[in-house]
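Lab notebook, page 48
Experiment: co-folding of the full assembly
Goal: obtain a model of how the components sit together before planning crosslinking
Operator: M.T.
Materials (sequences as entered):
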Amino acid sequence: MPGPVAVRLTINGTPREGRCEPRKLLVDFLREDLGLTGTHVGCEHGICGACTILVNGEAARSCIMLAVQAEGSEIVTVEGLARDGRLHPLQEAFREHHGLQCGFCTPGMLLAALDFLRMHPDPTESQIREGLSAVLCRCTGYQGIVNAVKAAAPVLRGGEHRP
Amino acid sequence: MIGARLPRREDARFLTGQGQYVADLARAGTLHAAFLRSAHAHASILRLDVTRARQAAGVVGCFTAADLAGRVRPLVAPSRMKTYRPTRFPVLAEGRVRHVGEAMAVVVAESRYAAEDALDLIEVEYAPLPVIADLTEALAPSAPLVHPAAGSNALVTRTFSQGDAAEALAGAGCVVRDRFRFHRHAGITMENRACLAEHRPTEGLLTLWTSTQVPGIVRDALAEVLDVPAHRIRVVAPDVGGGFGIKTVVYPEEVAVCALAMALGRPVTWVSDRREDLLSSTQAWDELIDAQLGVGADGAILGLSARVLADIGAYSIYPWTASIEVIQVVSFLPGPYRVPHYHAEALGVATNKAPMGPYRGVGRPVSVFVMEALLDRAARALDMDPVEIRRRNLIRPEELPYRSPSGIVWDSGAFHESLARACDAADYEALRAEQSRARAAGRHLGIGLAAYVELTGVGSAIPVSPGADIATGTEGATIRVDSDGGVTAIFGLASHGQGHETSLAQVVAAELGVRMDDVRVVHGDTALSPHGTGTYASRSAVLGGGAAILAARSIRDKALTIAAHQFEVAPADLELADGVIRVRGVPDRSISLAQIAAAAYAGGKRLPRGLEPGLEATRFYDPYFGTASSATHLALVEVDPATCAISVLRYLVVEDCGRLINPLIVEGQAIGGVVQGIGAALLEELVYAEDGQLLSGSLMDYLVPTAAEVPTVEVLHVEIPSPTTLGGFKGVGEGGTIGAPAAIANAVADALAPLGVTITELPVTGERLFRLLANARRSIAPRPT
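Observation: model returned without errors.
Model output:
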């Protein structure tokens, strides 16, 4: 087994560094080595989307990426959405529209929705449903999530939104 | 406050990544367990050699059943039913494996990666045994026995009878009958099962954090199988990523990590991966139902009979037993209808598959599918509208309370009103007109109806699982008021998405007369809560809400007694609202609950003579029978016979869950349940091969609905407060999944009726629909010569 290697990346705007085996999954590196447990593991085969994060601005599944592949990249996780104790407008919309129940898919859903809204700033409902089909939710029936994304779209279009 | 559509308090932590699920709970020095799982569905284990695994890098221990001998007992679910045959579910397989994925050995290592590496070094030699992979084979004289000690594969049987169904059917002008099949289903919680055990012998305390719905049940089970007194075990359900019934079962892995932590002196965790979840979490349904319904020329039901055969898999699960699913099917088959003559038999058989357990709706999704399909057939045979035949048979308000043929009492409901409102809201006549126009244009639209009634908030008179020897009818709440007026309400319940921290706070705040912000709800920790079992069977609003009301009343009464003493008035002259006690009609005479609480702890002359100090109450609630929740579902689908695609165009629920605590949460439960039911009707199926191998062992093969496959679900409420429960609450967690498979199946059958297709099997996957259409074409079209 090859020994640990250094992985340097920027997470939620902060440079971070860790050492891990080259085979270590990015999601395990985030959770175990960097203590960022907001990103969840739901299937480890790239289907459920619970582990979705932004890598260099685009949604990616951190359960089918190796940590070493993220070397030098800019990553956004759910921990990076709220700023100064205030929820991101998308997070606010999820709360307002009951877009979550058990909360397990929520971090991946939020990041996937942010990426979707970046590409579709003024989406139709059917675009939202298609766009979010990359993340599974077993509790909500998706209705609250779809409504939240619909409601957040004009807010994000209107303002300087992060990330 | 009760009835307010409040956003949930839980959300802030989930939205910011601050949820604390089991896998997030790092303890210093935690070891990671990985289980070796059987590659065979049925085999003797000739050799299981862990020598090399023990020597692998990072490995701290490797255990087989022999290594755990004397440390753990198997899980054996007792029952009061005389016909029941228990099974011995070992924590690790003892010489024999009975399903693919059964745990045989466990490696404990410094990391999950190292533990999984070492699994590959375990050497196993199997001697395969004949496999029962289909329920119809289990009773053949030549069938091998899954549990030779049980003496039969028939682990559970039960018959319900009222009147003379055979005679009623023989005399009925119209009898419809069919064989129905509801295939095997997986719960798929987004968080896989996970647990973490820590043993601190110096304190005499074993703690298990586990992703469970039932910390109280797990605690009591561990006490038994580990032979540790229950008060020395603390079971915590932290944030739990979905349950749906799957996490109401006590699993071998939960017992194993406890035994390993005790043996190794370090915390041990196991976090299931998705493959393990599909292989080893309990599964649902898998039933074959022969049923017949007799109606008169006017559509009135005369008699109903059924025989249900269920595949309960390899073990009778703890604590619910093998009876949990199949007996519920026959218990609830008559639904919200007048069925004068009824006869039904239930039979659960052991096979070489993962064990069957409770899943959202338990039995009723299957019984409603069958009953509603039969009603549609009878309506078709009589050339009667499906709405009309239901109207003629639904129990009328003046007939309530109504005793069902299986002995369940429906305390309340609005079956006719729900149906009428569903038809109004959907504009049923207009939908039928649209269907006619679509048919003329060559499109296949179908309308499906389903009505159901279910027993929720079940009290001590009826076991949640027939025969299961476990107390499920009571629940406790402790409410404590601190000397600054803050209120803590502690429950044995364990929310796993239901939002109890919000809804139960609403109940406490309303009943006690304090502000929401002053109430904090604690749940899911046996060390903190009064005795309880957990959250399942649509019970928490009823039992938890009831216990909260009782405890709040005790606190309120005591606070008013203390205030009355200080004001020198009668308690009846006082009112408590927003945390302030006022003398009625004298606005300037008031005192805060905080001051009263401070007095309650300070004692002395501030309390009436002889009154015990303190402002805390623990009360238990038993609704005794339970209460009836009901709904009508209406689905509009379009089927494209060319592609076999089924689109759900519209979905409507009119439900009665009694007095609403928080409509936002209620609607979330209803909508989420419906979408699971749509998955069950159209997509989700666990497929086992003839050799007992699971063919749908990933989320690429086991298809859960995504946002793209499901419609917006409209939910309307008919609020009939329960006449039998405190607060008037009824349960709502399962209803969506109970009604949806039937409504979808009836809609698809309605769409394809002109083609001669009926739906007897769920899910109606694309492939199944293709075959149905091909068979229909063959039977209609003349054979080419």
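Interpretation: Strands of chain A lie at 5-11, 14-20, 52-55, 58-61, 74-76.
Next step: discuss with group before ordering constructs.
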